[in-house]
Amino acid sequence: MNNKLLDVDLLKGLAAGDRKVIGRIYKDHFNMIQSLIVNNNGSTDDARDIFQEAMIVLYDKTRAGSFELNCQLKTYLYSVSKRLWLKRLQQNNRLLSQEIDPDTTILVEEEIAGFEKREAEFELMNQAIQRLGEPCGSLLDAYYIRKMNMQDIALQFGYTNADNAKNQKYKCLMRLKKLFFSEYKNGNPNG
Prior knowledge:
Elements: H1 2-15, H2 19-38, H3 44-64, H4 73-91, H5 108-132, H6 136-145, H7 150-157, H8 162-187
Helix pairs in contact: 1-2, 1-3, 2-3, 2-4, 3-4, 5-8, 6-8, 7-8
């Protein structure tokens, strides 16, 4: 499998202390770990700490020479990070003991699949936004990202009143929805 070969190469580079490999592992997997931590009572700083600890565990194991990866690298990092995070939550009393019941925890592979699906959907939404064009892109950005009210949007975009701006926002939103679902059907992110 191609991922397996790439993972083996990454582990060799990590064991050798190759900074480019370390950067690649960070780039490829940090967002997944950050999502895990932030969605479970943590912060971005917590995610950085946990990811760093997981990287140290992985580094130590690869340096020992006897480490054999029996799953994908992302699965390993996710599993180690999750265990480290649960341990930290217990130590900080931010997690009640019954919340760690292994019977109720979702399998790591399922969590990763869910994360990958969301990432694919975000990418498809980004593609749809790129295809949306102007003035719709700027108008939706003004309303949803910059949190401008309709009166200010009407002034900025030259609409006669807030109702006209609201009507145009609705049309843009419907157009974006159509573009997204067109991309979604064609891209079919894990679904």
